[in-house]
Amino acid sequence: MFYWISEYKELWSVLRLFEYVTFRAGGAAFTAMLLTMFLSPLTIRLLKKFNATAPCRFQGLMDEKFIDRAKDKTPSMGGILIIGSVAVSSLLWNRLDNNIPLILLGAMLLFAILGFVDDFAKAVHGNRDGIPGKFKLLFQFLIAGGMILLLNYIPETKGLLQDFFVPFFKGSLFNSPWTMLFSTVVVVGASNAVNLTDGKDGLATGCSIMCAFVFAVFAYFSGHIKFAEYLNVPFMPGISEAVVFASALSGACLGFLWYNCYPASIFMGDTGSLALGGTIGLIAVLVRQELLLAVVGGVFVLEAVSVIIQVTSFKLTGKRVFLCTPIHHHFEQKGWTETQIVVRFWILASIFALMALGTLKLR
Q1: Where are the domains of the chain?
Q2: What confidence tens digit (pLDDT) does each residue in 85-123 have?
Q3: Residues 6+ apart with CB under 8 A from 113
Q4: Which residue, 59, 172, 277, 346, shows the most beta carbons closer than 10 Å to its own?
Q5: Using the 8-state DSSP alphabet, how is residue 68 labeled?
Q6: C-alpha torsion angle, residues 297, 363, 163, 179 (rounded to 10)
Q7: What is the pTM for the complete model shown?
Q8: Whole-number pLDDT of residue 4
Q9: How many CB atoms lie within 10 A of CB 298?
Q10: Which residues of the chain form beta strands (DSSP E)?
Q11: CA torsion 65→68→72→78, rounded to 10°?
Q12: How confident is the model at residue 55, as a pLDDT?
């Protein structure tokens, strides 16, 4: 919306700033951060009023001494605050004649609705597991697949989502419709990985900030023809608007972290984690860096892989590899404090983010 202010640049030259994606990205991040920070106290009070708290997922699965019962009274579903702030900020700062931010916003809202229904089942009905896993997975695939099809046929990215790119290689390896199926799996995997990571105060939020920032950088380079040619990343006209959206996402998480850091006053719940993971995964697909997502979101990958290893090992041998999964609970039972776990995982996330950015010079 603010982009159209630049039409009056002849009257006042400073209005030319609203043409630049970097200026609007900064504005989107700042707006989303302020909205989240200022609306958090009200959101916390409302969620407490409606008793929107989720039962502990590890009741009966973890030693009681590792379960913080104080968190049972902390309101969940805080993801509605993140999603709302991103939506408002995106509508204000993105160019609304571009399809990309609208599709990203639609995907985020659909994942958030799925997460909200899951949170509602846990909070209201006291169902520890929420929506049955098979149904949740089915809807995740439908949302991800539908949005990827849309992205593949809009003018800004028409046909480009069928190209398969590998980090460190110039150009695409091949072009096939099957690439979109792989991309769908990546988005669903990212959504679930962030959901698994959301188990400690500020853990998923902090890691999401770094992921969103890295893909904002990739989107900027992919949308700039000279940078794209120099860095050998796919040039995609119009994708620059994803920079604004990803910046809003990063800003909203930063504001949410003010109240989500230890000791958390609010949790994002599945409403936030499913939406954050799905949206970050979709942005990775959009900039054709699905494989690099495994590096950027290295912490999320570690969390998800630890669960896969644990479940597989237990089913095949009856033995557990880790004391408890996701892996942050393993370190908790090894004696790490919650703050140590979160800060150390943030450090890892920072290293992974820098590694991902470093690949830009290795192509």
Answers
A1: 19-295+338-361
A2: 999 999 999 999 999 999 999 999 999 999 999 998 887
A3: none
A4: 277
A5: -
A6: -40
A7: 0.93
A8: 74
A9: 21
A10: 163-164, 174-175
A11: -140
A12: 61
Q: Which two tokens stand for residue 193?
A: 């990985």
Using CA of residue 13, residue 19, residue 25, residue 27, what is the dihedral sign? positive
If one counts every other C-beta atom within 10 angstroms of the C-beta of residue 84, the result is 18
- Using CA atoms, how far apart are residues 91 and 28, in angstroms rounded to an integer? 9
Look up tokens 């796919």; give the residue. Answer: 234
Q: What pLDDT sits at residue 68?
A: 54
Tokens found for residue 254:
């930063």
Query: How far is the C-alpha of 256 from the C-alpha of 39, rounded, in Å?
Result: 10
- Between 33-47, 57-71, 142-156, 311-325, the lowest mean confidence (pLDDT) is in 57-71
Residue with tokens 């030259």: 13
The pLDDT score that the predictor gives to residue 234 is: 86
Residue 319 sits at φ, ψ, to 5 deg, of -115, 150
Which residue has 């009966």 as its token pair?
60
Report how far residue 89's alpha carbon sits from residue 75's, in angstroms, rounded to the nearest whole number.
Answer: 24
Query: Considering only CA atoms, which of 158, 130, 159 is closest in space to residue 274?
Result: 130
- Quickly state the pLDDT bin for 147 (edges 50, 70, 90): very high
Residue located via tokens 């920032």:
213
- Please give the full DSSP string across 306-318, using - where no structure is assigned: HHHHHHHHHHHHS
CA dist 316 and 66 (Å) reads: 27
**Mean pLDDT confidence for 21-50:** 94
